[in-house]
Specification:
By secondary structure, the protein is mostly helical. Helix 1 runs antiparallel to helix 4.
């Protein structure tokens, strides 16, 4: 049971921290972004156990988080019409759901996220 605490903490912290980042950046968030943030940090937690360098983990984290953002966007924005975000006005966007600029943001956030996951792994 103890081995579940690290991933559970990663998920919960990811949801809370991402929600707070969105509130600070955009002034609003949507409850589904707490799930996306939780899943993103959980992915970083598992990537951290793969024996990759920190740089490799951050790049892989960027790719996985961008894929997760695309999946969430296709379901929430395109299929359900919730309009949580729209990158249609950004260069290089794909269906208005992902764009290179935010992929770079995920790369940047993967660094502190990976370090946080390292800490969680040491604690648990």
């Amino acid at each position: 049971m103890k081995h579940l605490f690290g991933p559970l903490c990663a998920f919960l912290l990811g949801g809370v921290l991402y929600g707070l980042c969105e509130l600070a950046w955009r002034g609003r968030t949507h409850w589904t972004m707490l799930l996306a943030g939780g899943l993103s940090l959980l992915l970083l937690y598992f990537v951290g156990g793969m024996g990759l360098s920190l740089w490799q983990r951050c790049v892989l984290g960027m790719v996985l988080i961008t894929a997760l953002e695309f999946l969430f966007g296709c379901v929430l924005n395109l299929r359900l019409g919730l309009g949580i975000w729209d990158y249609s006005d950004r260069p290089g966007n794909l269906l208005g759901q992902i764009c290179p600029g935010f992929s770079l943001a995920w790369l940047g956030l993967s660094l502190p996220g990976s370090l946080l996951c390292d800490l969680l792994r040491r604690i648990f």
